[in-house]
Each structure stands twice: as C-alpha cells, then as structure tokens.
Design brief:
The complex is a heterotrimer. By secondary structure, chain A is α/β, with parallel strands linked by helices. Chain A folds into two domains: about 200 residues, Periplasmic binding protein-like II (D-Maltodextrin-Binding Protein, domain 2, 3-Layer(aba) Sandwich); about 260 residues, 3-Layer(aba) Sandwich (D-Maltodextrin-Binding Protein, domain 2), CATH 3.40.190. Chain A is built from 21 helices and 18 strands. In chain A, strands 2-1-3-14-4-17 form a six-stranded mixed beta sheet. A four-stranded mixed beta sheet of chain A has the order 6-11-5-12. In chain A, strand 15 and strand 16 form a beta hairpin. In chain B, helix 10 runs antiparallel to helix 13. The radius of gyration of chain B is 24 Å and the shape is flat. The C terminus of chain B is likely disordered. Helices cover about 75% and strands about 0% of the residues of chain C. The model of chain C has no long low-confidence stretch (mean pLDDT about 90). In chain C, helix 5 crosses helix 9 and helix 6 crosses helix 9. Chain C is mainly α. The radius of gyration of chain C is 24 Å and the shape is flat. The chains are: A alpha/beta, B mainly alpha, C mainly alpha. Chains B and C meet through helix 1, helix 4, helix 5, helix 6 and helix 7 of B and helix 1, helix 5, helix 6, helix 7 and helix 9 of C.
C-alpha cells in the first residue's frame, strides 16, 4: 500500500521531468532565436543584444511590438533581455557572468567603472575612428569638451574614446519652496541664510497649511543624509543627489566631504535638526516616506529634480485638494561662502560597444547608435509604441502611466541620455493636457529659474577607477556615518576633524592624488 | 485523567503566552494586508497603520488581472510540487545509508564530513554559474528544480530522524529477509511521516521562494517564477523622467501593489501548513505500527 | 579476508547504491563549483578565466585583516553571532515544548500557523515593518507617549540595534524553527507519557524528564548546524535594518563584503572573505562535534 504510493509519486516525478524537459528543448530554441545564433532575419535585419537599465518592464524580444518599432525606426533589431537591476548590483554581476561565459552583449551600459577593465583587455571597441565614420550623429550630439573628458578617461592612456557618455546639459536640481505658504504668512522670499531660517521657523510655528495642527515639516531629506543638497549647497559644497563630489577648493581638486565648507554646513544642519526645522526622521525617510510627507501637504521646502515636480503637485492635489504653488528658492547667502547647485554634464558612461569580430554586428550596432542619436528620432523614441507607451488624445501624444506588466523596456531613449533644457521642457509641454497645465507651467518656470544657481563642477566626468582598491571611499561609508551622526547630534562637530583624518588614512589621500592627476590631464 | 489545580494554571499560563505571541506574530502582517486594501493617496500620506484606509480592491484587481503573474504562479506551483517530491526521494536515499553504523555503511563518516563541508562552504558565483551552465541548465526551466533536490541541511535533519528509528523493527524485518531498499520504502519512510512532512515543508518553501537561480540562469520571461515577478514590484529605484504620464488617476501605486503581491505569494504556502500538521500529531509513528 | 568483504557487499550493497545519486549531486553542484574557490588566492578576472588569472597568495586575506575597520566589523559579527546563538537559538525549543502542552487541537494548529507566518515575509518587508514600528507615528513611540516619555527614533540609535536584531530574528523565524522540534516530539513513544502519568508525574516533570531529554539529540544536531554558520549571519537581515548611524554596531562581515566585494564585482576578495567565514565555521563544528560525542552518542559524524 505504502510502497505503491511511493511508486506512484516516483512515476509522477519522472513523468513530470520528461514533460518539462520536452518543453525545455523549445525554450532553448526560442532563446537562441532571440540571441546570437540568428544574426539575420529573412528581411536582412541584423539583431543585436542590448543590455541596460530595466527596473521591471517587459523585455524586448524578437518580434515584439517594441522590437518591430525599433526595427522600423532604427533599421536594427534590438533584443533586450530582462536583467534585474537592483541598484546596479545584480545587473553588474549578471553582466560579469555573461562575460565569463564569453557572451558579452553587443551594446550595453557599463557599471562601477567596469569599462576600464573592458578597454584594457580589448573587449570593447575603440570608438575613436568608428564613431565619426559610421555614427556621426553621436559625435555631433555631444559637445567637443565632453569628448575631451572621455578621451582623458581612456584607461590605456592613449586618449581614445571607449564609451559614449550620458550627458545632461542643464541644471536639473532645485530647492522647491511653497510660495503659497510664504504669501499666506506674508513673508518675502528669503535671500540670506538668516532670513531662510526665519522662514523655516514660521513654517514650523504658524500653521501655514491651515489644518490647525502643528504637523508642518519646514524642510528635510532622505536616508544617508541624501536629497537635502540645498542645505549643503549654500556653503558651496559640491553635492550630487546627496553624494559629496569633487570640485576646486583652495585651488585644488578636492573631495567636498573633507572641506571646511562641509564642516560648516554640517554644523548648520545639526542646528536645524536640533530646533526641529528639518524633519526629525530625515535620516530614516525612504523615498516613499519622504514623498508621502510632501504629498500630504506638510512640507515647506524640499530638494529634488525640478522637472519631476508636476508628478508631486498632481499627487498632492489629488490627495488633499490643494493646488500647491512652488518656487525655486534662491540660494540663501552665507557670509564667506559662495553657494551653488552641483551640475554634472557627464553623469556616467552610457554605452560601450562590444569589440565584435563579427563585422556585420559591429556595423549594425553603430548604425543603431547613429540613428538613435539622430535628433529627429528622439521624440518618437521617447514616446515609444502607440497603445503601449502612449496614446493619442485630440491629436496630441500623451504618455500612458507606468505599467510594468504591459510595457516593454524603452532601452533606446536618447531623451534620458542626452538631455538638454529645451528638449526636456518641450517634452513636458508637448504631453500636457488641459487638466495639468497649471503643473506643467509651474515646472517650466521653475526649470528656467533653477539654471541661475547651477554650476558645473571641476570633478565632472571623473572616472570611477580612481577609487580602485578603496571601495569604502567609493561607497562613502565613512562620510555617511559621520555626517548622519553629527546631524542628529550624537557626535559633536569637532568629530569632523577625526573623520577627515580617518578618511585620508583609509585611502582618501591616494584617491585624491589620482583625482588631481586626472584633473591635470583633462586641463592640459 | 485527573488534573491538579497547579497543572491547570500551568497549562492556561502557557496558552495565554502563546496566544499573545501569535497575536504579535500576525499584527504586522495585518498592516501589509491593510496597505494592499487602501487607496493610493492614503498610503502616499502614510495614513495606513493596522486597518485599511479608504478601502479599495483596486490593487488586487490589478494583480488578479495580470496573466503573466498567474503564469508564474502556476509554473512555481508545478516546480515546487515536483521538486519537493524529487527532493524527498533524493534526500531519503542518501540519508538512509548515512544513518547506518560504520559496520553496515563504511563511507558514512567521510560522506558526513563531505555533507557538512558542502553546507558550510559556499561556492563562488562565477564557477557555480559556469558549472551549472555546463550541464545544460542555462535558459532551461529545469534549473528551477534540479539544483534544489538535495540540501545538506535537510539531509542532516532527515538522517537524525532515521538514526532514532527503532532498531528492533528494522532487525525484525531484516531477519524476515527484507532488503535495504524494501526496508526504506516499506518500513522506514511510511513510519517517518513527521519528518517527511517537515522536509516537504522545508523543500517546498525553498523552491517556492527561490529567486537566485532563475535570476542568474533564466532569460526567457516565460519561465520566470513568482518571486522574480514580485521583485519587479518590490524594486524601489524607479526613475521617472520629465514628460512621464501622471499616475494620479490610478488608485494604486507601487506600495499598495507591493503589499498585494507579497500577500499573493505567501497565501498558498501558508495554506499548505494545516494539511501537513496532522503528521505532527504525537505518537504518529508508533501509533501506525500498532495499527 | 576477501570472503568477508565479499559477504559484506552481498548484504550491504543496496546502501552503497542508494548513496550514489546523492554523492553525484554533491560533487556536481557543490564540489566542482567549490574548486573555483581557488580564486581567493588569485586576482581573478573574467577575461583571463580561472587558469590564467595570476596567483597572489594570501593577498586578499591580508587586505581583509588589514582593513582599518576589520576589528570593528569582526567584533560586531562575533557579537551578533553570539547573541543569536544564546538568545535566538533556544526560543524555538521553548516554543515547541510549550505548544506541545496545548491539547485543544484547533487552538494548537492556530497558534502554530500564526507563529510561522512571519517567516514568509522577506527581510525587505520585515525591515519596512520594523522601521514603521519605530517611526515617530509608530506603535513604539505611541506607547512611550502613554508613559509621558519623549519619542525615540530607535533605528538611528546604536544602542537599539542589537535588541532590534535579536527581536526581529525571533519574531520572524522562531515559529518556523519549531517545525523540526514538533516533528521530533511527535516521534516520542506515547507509552512513556502514559507510564509517567500513572506514576503521578506532573506536566512540568514530564516535560523535563521525557520530552526535553528525547528532544535533545535533535537540538544538538541543529546547534551544530547553526554554529557552522556562526560568522554567516544572513546578509539580508542586517543590510535592511542598518543605517549609517548604526554602522558602529551593525556593520558585519556580510555587509562589508557586499559593499567591497559583491557590489564592485571583486570576486576574488568576496571569495576570500567567504572562505574565512567558512573555515572558522568548520573549525567550530569540528570542535563542538568532538565535544558532543563525548557527552552523548550524537554528533554529526
């Protein structure tokens, strides 16, 4: 009786295996179809495998809608498998596994300075001669001075181009303040730091949202002391989305985290924290939590991408019925310091091309790049597939809301990798409807305003390889620990000097030396 | 049986403590459920604690309506059931000889050390990838089953139970001319329901919750198991660009969907437990011998 | 001699035959990839492969030991490992003994199911719940408020990290841990209890003198398995609960190697740290296995 049961179980197991194996044969075939083996379709289109950021959308597979769209627009078949991103960590590891198995994608986004090793080992194509010849649109879309930085970053030291950079040609960031709250309390826009602090105090005490509760949060930020750049910026600290960056201090390229400017700004922020002028939970806020606070009409001043403001305003309006009015806060003046918002034109390497032995694939990759960087395709590539990524309303293309279960990943989208102010504003306005015009107008005005305070930093384009061997410097581990503890008052500000010393000892000195050598090379 | 007063106090004291602990165990889960049943703006404004605010089924409607999620669900169900059955067989086959004395099975000691090493030492990812790929499991859905059919930890547990198996019973069977295969399948396993249920649970959960193998070995989205699908929701690093559509008309967001998918994925595995519980009844083993 | 060996095989061969598939599995899925751990002694590069990557001896181990924060990271790992062993490990045993005393079958099932549910929430989700619990509007501060206390943001206080670690471990996994023990208890001969009751032994005495001793071999085995992973605390839990303000007590080998090895794809270094953890784990198992063989006939081999 028992034995028979076991036997049945076993038989079922074996049967099931064979069944699944049977299927697996098909799966293998189809994936090979999608992959390298079939280079050319019946109509002569060459397929290439492209890897990049995908935060959960459907992959682009042979014959899918986006595949056909790219084939038509760019003349090349794009296969983009789903590779989990997870902050870049899983992506990088899977990319390495692919490389170890000798199956590097034809075109991909590098991570964590991996392009250096790739270039040194001859695994990615030297683009110096290829781009002007086969993809002139790429050359002309990116300004000369940026190519010079790319050349200086050649790890082989020969001034060759190994990657196509991700370029942002305008100041994306701003400190947004509730203009309607200022007006209600009869306060003028603050100009100096003292006035700014007075405004924050008024936000805290005078119930500007008018709900009778003292629930206002004057300003704040997110975990790891991120997304509160505006509080650092007034002291001239180079700070990029909460990460300290490199700029000229005392005449030399220096990591902003170890400058006296940083010390002064941390002291100031700690004072705000003590007085309840920044969110007590600033250093614990996740993205969700912080945005939730802003959207529940409680936050007076926050720092973020100006161009995403309309989504915040919209959600705030839908949740609370308040049409919030935001202005860009001019950098409050602090005596003895010159404030600015950090602008990085070269955000990171965007694409590297496999050093393909297969000439046909290499040419197809370059053709794809050339057509993708052709200005007249940008809008179409941004919009994607009709019915999937956008829809037509009154003769106007309106982007559909994010839906990871139906939308394929828009892997080729120059609007994200070569942004200019005009184009971004144009994209915003071209998709505006009657209902959200008030938001778009605000955002447009603020974006133009924010340009006044943006300054490109000297460390723009610094390659990740300067951190080789010092991962904890690269990860800002020490900085995050000291900065957060100083802000919440667990450490006195005098501890800052200990941090600088420790930072230098644990590799900061060496990293600084490398950064300065790089700077010399770029500015030859 | 007669019970003294202090006995009753003892038992009710324990009962109260356990009920309290059970409550503490489920309350946080309630908050996840509530999030999945609340409106987008309530969640956005961090209003949801224990009970749903602005009650809505919209997140669930969205989840239930996704064919790809259901596909993953059934794929995971099938691989879990088959994988668990295979794993129990594989594990029992090795655990049984390992439970024998040195005079019966001379390799016992060496293999046990080998098993312990296999449990403690973890292979680096690159060689593991290349090996598993080398045996043809890349882009092959069997990778959802085969690498999991023998787990050193579970093997040691099963061996421990086999070791405690009644020696008299086995000897009696042995004298009747019963070979080891029959002994295992007709005597030992039928009387080890408790441990089989335990390991079925362990393997079942392992297979149901796996994401590492499909993450590294599967590229065809048709073969993605449930956990990979869910990770697409749990991921936090969404970058929204200018000109993106407004989502304000939808009554769900990433947080409510995340909560709903989390519940969606754990309900089936929680439902299994009560069915297995009957094998944990005291004296299950001896009782069946008598009967 | 030969005749005896032949006779042995004639009787015992099925045992060897049974073991073959499992051994093959272990070799293929564990030992062949484990051979790749040699990259701990090399500067492995995906371009050069395992053979051609240059040997560097103990360089990566030295990097680990000479890291300025090594003492802190190692100390934290030991501390949390110890806490887990002393405070978390015994809880499932206690719970199982307690659950065993409940006779109403429905209540028993309900409690067991409730206790094991949290195990199915991943650490990302659990950490979210923990952060909510300790937030300004969370239950913790509401209760503090009842007693007229100032609110405390526990997740950014280093003093709270270890208690949070221990309690969250118990909350998530203790119920699940009882499963093995419940199975072991169910294997106990009921006649033992019957005769004990005839002798007038109280519940507590039965627990102490029958259930617990018979459960001990299982506890011992699980203890040995646990100690093998002494330095391997589980990356997910700590990574999701830690903040920069609690690095000083919460930064452990797993989080350290994630930042410096895995995130940067430094495979050789990550492997070296893994080997370091495993070798210590194995030595511990070896020692405790010897000890356990002295005190009982149990042990792993």
């Amino acid at each position: 009786m028992k034995a028979r049961k076991m036997g049945l179980l076993l038989a079922a197991g074996v049967l099931a295996i064979t069944a699944v194996t049977g299927c697996s044969g098909n799966a293998k075939n189809s994936s090979e179809n999608a992959g390298k083996n079939q280079t050319e379709s019946a109509d002569g289109t060459v397929d290439i495998e492209v890897w990049g950021t995908n935060i959960g959308y459907k992959p682009v597979t042979k014959g899918s809608k986006l595949y056909e769209f790219y084939k038509e627009k760019l003349g090349v078949g794009v296969i983009n498998p789903y590779v989990e991103w997870n902050g870049g960590t899983n992506y990088l590891n899977q990319l390495n596994l692919k490389i170890a198995a000798n199956e590097m994608p034809d075109l991909f986004v590098p991570q964590q300075g991996i392009e250096d090793n790739l270039a040194k080992n001859g695994a990615i194509a030297d683009l110096t001669d290829l781009l002007p010849k086969y993809a002139p649109n790429v050359m002309s879309a990116i300004p000369e001075e940026i190519w010079n930085v790319v050349k200086a970053n050649d790890p082989t030291g020969q001034g060759r181009i190994y990657y196509i950079p991700n370029v942002v040609q305008y100041g994306r960031y701003g400190s947004m303040i509730r203009q309607d709250w200022l007006d209600k309390l009869g306060l003028p826009m603050p100009k100096t730091q003292d006035e700014y602090v007075k405004v924050l105090e008024a936000f805290r005490d005078k119930d500007p949202n008018g709900n009778g509760q003292k629930d206002e949060i004057p300003t704040g930020g997110r975990e790891q002391a991120r997304w509160m750049d505006h509080l650092f910026a007034m002291y001239g600290v180079a700070m990029f989305e909460g990460y300290p960056d490199w700029d000229i201090y005392d005449g030399q390229l220096t990591y902003s985290a170890v400058t006296p400017n940083m010390k002064a700004s941390l002291e100031f922020i700690a004072k705000l924290y003590k007085e309840g002028l920044i969110d007590k939970e600033s250093l614990l806020n996740t993205k969700d939590k912080w945005e939730g606070k802003i959207q529940s009409n409680r936050v007076g001043n926050y720092f973020h991408w100006v161009e995403q403001g309309n989504l915040v305003f919209e959600n705030l309006y839908k949740s609370t019925g308040v049409k919030a009015e935001y202005s860009v806060l001019p950098l409050p003046e602090v005596p003895g310091y010159k404030g600015f918002y950090t602008m990085k034109k070269i955000a990171s390497p965007q694409w590297v091309v496999k050093n393909n032995k297969d000439q046909e694939k290499l040419m197809a990759t370059l053709k794809l790049l050339n057509n993708a960087y052709d200005k007249k395709n940008w809008k179409d590539l941004f919009l994607g597939v009709e019915g999937m990524h956008y829809t037509m309303q009154d003769g106007k293309a309106i982007k559909l809301p994010d839906d990871k279960s139906t939308q394929e990943n828009q892997i080729i989208n120059p609007a994200t990798s070569i942004s200019t102010l005009d184009m971004t504003i144009d994209l915003l306005n071209s998709t505006a409807s009657e209902d959200n015009k008030w938001e778009i107008d605000q955002v447009t005005r603020n974006m133009q305003e924010a340009q006044k305070y943006a300054k490109p930093i000297a460390g723009d384009g610094l390659p990740a390889s300067i951190y080789d061997g010092f991962p904890d410097i690269n990860n800002r581990t020490l900085y995050a620990e000291y900065a957060t503890k100083i802000i919440i008052g667990e450490y006195p500000i005098s501890k800052f000097d200990e941090f600088v010393e420790k930072w230098n000892k644990s590799g900061g000195e060496e990293v600084t030396k490398r950064a300065r050598e790089w700077y010399k090379k770029v500015n030859q | 049986m007669f019970e003294s007063r202090s006995e009753k106090v003892f038992v009710s004291g324990i009962t109260i403590i356990l009920i309290l602990m059970s409550a503490i165990a489920i309350i946080p889960l309630l908050s996840v459920i509530s999030t999945s049943l609340s409106s987008k703006s309530a969640v956005d404004m961090n209003l949801v604690t224990l009970w749903p605010k602005q009650f809505t089924f919209d997140s669930w409607a969205y989840i239930i309506d996704r064919p790809d999620l259901w596909r993953s669900f059934f794929l995971t169900l099938v691989t879990t059931v088959i994988g668990t059955a295979l794993a129990l067989l594989m594990t029992a086959l090795l655990a049984y000889p390992l439970s024998k004395t040195k005079s019966e099975f001379r390799w016992g000691g060496v293999i046990m050390i080998g098993v312990v090493i296999a449990m403690i030492f973890k292979a680096p990812i690159v060689p593991y990838f290349l090996t598993v790929r080398g045996i043809g499991l890349y882009n092959n859905p069997l990778v959802l089953i085969i690498p999991h059919i023998l787990n050193p930890f579970n093997l040691i547990i099963m061996r421990t139970f086999f070791k405690q198996f009644s020696k008299e019973l086995e000897e009696a069977a042995f004298l009747e001319g019963c070979g080891y295969f029959r002994m295992l399948f007709q005597l030992v396993l039928p009387l080890s329901k408790a441990v089989l249920a335990t390991l079925a649970l362990f393997y079942g959960v392992l297979l149901w919750n796996q994401f590492q193998h499909p993450l590294f070995f599967l590229q065809n989205p048709d073969w993605f198991p449930l956990q990979i699908k869910i990770r697409q929701f749990i991921t936090d690093d969404s970058v929204i660009m200018a000109g993106s559509a407004s989502t304000a008309d939808l009554n769900y967001n990433s947080r409510t969907l995340r909560a709903a998918t989390v519940i969606f994925a754990i309900v089936p595995i929680i439902l299994v437990y009560p069915f297995l519980q009957k094998y944990f009844v005291k004296g299950a083993m001896i009782g069946s011998v008598k009967g | 001699m030969k005749a005896i060996a032949f006779h042995r095989m004639k009787v015992y061969w099925p045992l060897y035959a049974m073991a073959i598939p499992g051994i093959i599995f272990l070799v293929v899925f564990k030992y062949i990839p484990l051979a790749g751990a040699v990259i701990a002694f090399k500067d492995y590069s995906v371009f050069k492969g395992f053979i051609d990557s240059p040997w560097v001896g103990f360089k990566h181990f030295e990097t680990l030991l000479h890291h300025p924060d090594f003492a802190r990271v190692f100390g934290n790992t030991l501390m949390l490992g110890l806490l887990k062993l002393v405070l978390v490990f015994p809880i499932p045993v206690l719970l199982a003994l307690m659950i065993n005393e409940i006779r109403k079958s429905a209540l028993k099932k309900g409690i067991q199911t409730a206790l094991y549910i949290p195990h199915f929430l991943s650490w990302v989700i659990v950490a979210g719940i923990v952060f909510d619990f300790f937030s300004l509007s969370g239950l913790f501060n509401i209760v503090l408020g009842w007693f007229g206390q100032e609110p405390v943001l526990a997740m950014q206080e280093s003093d709270y990290f270890r208690p949070v670690y221990v309690i969250s471990s118990i909350w998530r996994d203790a119920g699940w841990g009882t499963v093995v023990y419940m199975a072991a208890i169910s294997a106990i001969d009921p006649q033992l209890y019957e005769s004990a009751m005839i002798d007038g032994a109280s519940k507590l005495r039965q627990m102490r003198h029958i259930t617990f001793p018979l459960l001990l071999p299982t506890v011992l085995v699980l203890f040995l398995l646990e100690i093998g992973n002494f330095l391997d605390l589980g990356f997910d839990q700590v990574f999701n609960l830690i903040t920069p303000m609690t690095y000083s007590v919460g930064d452990i080998l797993d989080t350290y190697v994630f930042r410096t090895g895995i995130q940067q794809a430094q495979y050789s270094f990550a492997t070296a740290v893994g080997l370091f953890q495993s070798v210590i784990g194995f030595i511990l198992v070896y020692i405790f296995n010897r000890l356990s063989k002295k005190v009982s006939d149990g042990g792993l081999w």
